[in-house]
Amino acid sequence: MLKKTGYDILFEPLAIGPVTAKNRFYQVPHCCGMGHLRPRAHAAMRATKAEGGWAVVSTEEAEIHPSSDLSPYAEQRIWDERDVPALRLMTDAVHKHGALAAIELVHNGHHAPNLYSRAPALAPSDTSLELVYPKQARAMSKTDIREFRRWHRLAARRAKQAGFDIVYVYAGHSMTLTQHFLLPEFNTRSDEYGGSLENRARLIRELLEETKEEIGDTCAVALRFAVDELKGADGMQAAEEGRAVVELLAELPDLWDVNVSDWANDSQTTRFALEDGYQIPYIDFVKQVTSKPVVAVSRLSSPDMMASLIKRKVVDFIGAARPSIADPFLPSKIESNRTDEIRECIGCNICVSSDTLGVPIRCTQNPTMGDEWRRGWHPERIEPKVSEAAALVVGGGPSGLECALQLARRGYQVTLAEASDRLGGRVAEEASLKGLSAWLRVRDNRLYELQQKANVDIFTGSELSAAHIRELEIENVFLATGARWRVDGVGRSSRKAIAGLGSMQVFTPHDIMTGAALPEGPLVVYDDDQCYLGGVVADHLSAAGYDTSIVTPAAVVSPWTSYTLEQERVQRTLLQQGVKIHANRTLSHARENSIEANCVFTGEAIELPCAGLILVTERLPQMKLYRHLMKLQESGDLGGMPLRLEVIGDALAPGLIADAVYSGHLAARSFEADPDKVDSALYRREMPSLSDQR
Ligand code: ADP
Ligand code: SF4
C-alpha cells in the first residue's frame, strides 16, 4: 500500500511487553451496549475495526466478579469460565485481521449496584453507592482485599484462556475500585491500604504484579489510569499526585493508557471542547516518567496531529474510542492515502447515549456501527446495484444526503434536489448554533464523497412539486423533506395549543438558526422537547447578549443530555451566562409582553416578562409533497409512470440526526433488495442459550 510521507511513523510496529502491535493505532476500551448480552454483535463490531487497520482492539470494561455487577447495563463479564467462549468469539475475529485483542478487567466498587447479583457493594471505606439507590457499599476488610486480588488473578487467567493479548488493570473514570483506593475522598483507611500515596497505590501495585506473574509470559499487562480528575485541588491533579502515581509505578505495567476522569471529562463533546487533543496538556508528562509505551485519547482524527504527537514523543500509540466508531477504517484510509475520506467524529456522544441507555452502540456519522452482525452491514462495502434504475432524492438534509450517497455507491444514477440554496438541512441549521459547529461534518463528509461521483446530479434552490416529479419521470423517489418545529406549543406536556400565542412574537428554533430579527426585550425559551435543542438555543441567545430565560416542565435543563454526559455542563453554562432557569413549569398563557408559567406539581402560576417567545416543543413531518404524489398516483394522473415512493428521515419520524442518517442508509441498502431479508434483519437478536443453566 502507498504511504504518505510524514505518516509513516504511524505505521511502525511497537512492542508492548511480550506482544507487538503492528502499528500505532490503538482502539482503547470503550462501552458499546453489547457486552455479555450480545457477544456475536460485539465480536462483529470489534472485528470491523481490526479489519480497518487498528493494531489493538479492546473490549469494554469486563466485570471480574458478581460483586461488580453493572446490570441492567450490558458490559463485558468474565465472572467464570462460562464467559470464555463468548469472549473467544471476539479475540478470534480480531486476530483474523492481524490485530491484538485487549480486555479491560474491572471491579467497579461502589459504582456497581449489584442489582442482579445482590452481592454487597465493596469500597475502600463505607460509602453510598454512586447510583442514587438506598444501599451503601461496605468498607473492605483485609480478607475482602485478598479475595478481590484472587478474583482479579483468576479473571486474568481466564482472559488468557479466551485468547487476549493485552490484559488491563483499570483505575479510571471514577468508576473503579482501584481508583477509589487511590483517592482520599473515598479511602479513609488507616491500615497499609490507606494514608500515604504509597499505601493508597498498594492495591494497584499488587494487581499489576500478580497479573504479570499469572499471564505476563505471553500477555502484556496495561494500566489504564486517570491522571487528573479536573476538580482542581479537590481531586487528583496531573501536576501533583497524578504524576506521583506514574513515578511510583513507572516501569511496572507494559503499557500506560492515560486519560482524565470522570467519563464526562474523558469523553467531552465538541459542544464543550471543540478542539481535538483536549486531554494532551494533562497527560503529556507521562512519557517523561516511564520508558514503557504510552497511549492516550482526545477525539484524535487528524493524521497530522497524530503524527506530530508521536514525533514529539507525547505518546507512542494514538488511542481512540469515538474516532474508531465514526470511522473503523481510519488507519487503513491514512495508510492508503485516502485521508479525505475519513468520516470524522462530530463529538456528539450519541454513541455514549446508547451505552447509558443499555442498547447497542449507534453513531451519527457511521450508521453501520452496531449493525455489523444484525444486518451484516460493513462501513466500506455495500451491495452493488441490481438494475439500471435511476433514483430521485428530494431533500438534502442528513437523510437525503446519506441515501443519495449510498445509492450512488451502489452504482445507481442519482438526482438529489434541495429546495434551499445550501445542502445539509437541519445539520446546516443546527451547526449555526453555539457549540455545534462540528456537526457540519455530517454534511461535509457526505458532500465531499458525492462530489467525487460521476453518477450523481445535485440541484440546490430546487423546491420540487408533484408536477416537477411527474415531469422528471424518475420512477424511484425518496422523500427526505424533513420536519418543522411546531408554532402552537403542542408538545410533551400539553396536547392543546397554548392560549394567547397570537398576541406575542413567537419563534421556532428554525428562526433562531436562520438569524431571524428578534425583539429588544427579554426572550423566553419554552423547552417542552426536553432533549438538547432548547438548552442549545438558550445558550446561543444568552451568549449573543439577549436577556434569556428558559422555562421547562423538566426538573433540569435538557434532561436527555445526561445520556450524552453533558447535562451538568449545559446547566452550569446557562447559569454562568445569567440565563434564568424556571424548571418544573409548563407554559399556559402568552400575553402581549409576558407569559404565564405553572408549577407542574401545584399549578401555582408566575408571570414572566417576555418580548419574544421561542417554542421548542415538537416537530411536524413535512408530508405535503408525499400526500400530493399519492393523490396523483391514486387518480391515475401520473401519466402511467409507475412511481415507487419512500419517505425517509425526519419526514418519516422526527428524531436525532443519527436516526435520519440511519433511515437514509437503510433505504439505500434496501432499494431493490429482497424484502424478506430486509424484514428479517429487524427481528434478528441474540437468543439466550438454554443449554447451560448451572
Ligand atoms: P432529515 O433530517 O430527514 O434529512 P432535514 O429537515 O434536515 O431532514 O432536511 C430536509 C431538507 O429537505 C431541507 O433541507 C429542505 O429544504 C428540503 N426539502 C423539503 N421539501 C423539499 C422539496 N419539495 N424539494 C426539495 N427539497 C425539499
Ligand atoms: Fe463521534 Fe457522535 Fe459517532 Fe460518537 S456518535 S463516534 S461522538 S460522531
Provide structural commentary.
The structure is a single chain. With 694 residues, the protein is an alpha/beta fold. The protein has 3 domains: 8-19 and 27-357, TIM Barrel; 390-482 and 622-674, NAD(P)-binding Rossmann-like Domain (Rossmann fold, 3-Layer(aba) Sandwich), CATH 3.40.50; 485-620, FAD/NAD(P)-binding domain. Helices cover 31% and strands 18% of the residues. Strands 3-4-6-10-11-12-13-14 form an 8-stranded parallel barrel, surrounded by 6 helices. Strands 17-16-15-18-29 form a 5-stranded parallel β-sheet, with helices on one face. A 5-stranded parallel β-sheet has the order 20-27-21-22-23. α1 runs parallel beside α2, α15 (398-410) runs parallel beside α17 and α15 (398-410) packs parallel to α23. The two termini are 50 Å apart. The structure holds adenosine-5'-diphosphate and iron/sulfur cluster. Iron/sulfur cluster is lined by residues 322, 325-326, 345-351, 363-365.
